[in-house]
Write a structure and sequence with these properties.
By secondary structure, the protein is mainly α. The chain has helices at 4-9, 12-24, 29-42, 85-98, 103-108, 113-116, 125-149, and strands at residues 64-70, 76-82. Strand 1 (64-70) and strand 2 form a beta hairpin.
């Protein structure tokens, strides 16, 4: 489901609405957790060279590595890996919504899908803190790339 053509033309909100629609097909949270696990399983593993201390996200109970690259068009592309499948599924969702956008679009993004699909309320406090840490790191990358490109 990683359709890069759609990703590059869809706005952050359109991508969020697509995630909400996909999750609304399930009433039971066990099915939603399974969807997160499936998303994680479908994602390409992060190369071992990227699994460094500097790419590790602080604040996650599980180990989560996140890398970001800026393309020639000024859009950020994220890749991530986690040692926990549900956590990897969560970061894959964040990547699906934010990857392929400009630093400013990422900085300005109001990620309403997290609450609309009920994710925040169905996470343990430690996973919820991890979600916030992942989001914070993605926005920090966007701020850093924005500052770098404005020079």
């Amino acid at each position: 489901m990683n359709d890069n053509n759609f990703e590059s033309i869809a706005s952050v909100n359109e991508l969020q609405d697509k995630v909400i629609e996909e999750f609304s097909e399930f009433d039971d949270w066990m099915d939603k957790y399974q969807m997160l696990i499936d998303l994680a399983s479908e994602e390409q593993p992060l190369p071992a060279a990227c699994k460094t201390e500097q790419n590790l996200i602080d604040g996650c109970q599980s180990r989560v590595w996140l890398v970001a690259d800026l393309d020639e068009a000024g859009r950020i592309h994220f890749k991530a890996e986690s040692d926990a499948l549900i956590v990897k599924g969560i970061v894959v969702l964040l990547i699906r919504v934010l990857s392929g956008h400009t630093p400013q679009e990422i900085i300005d993004a109001d990620l309403y899908f997290i609450d609309r699909i009920g994710l925040r309320e169905h996470l343990s406090p430690t996973r919820s803190n991890g979600l916030l840490a992942m989001l914070r790191q993605m926005k920090m990358y966007a701020l850093a790339y924005k500052a770098k490109t404005e020079k």
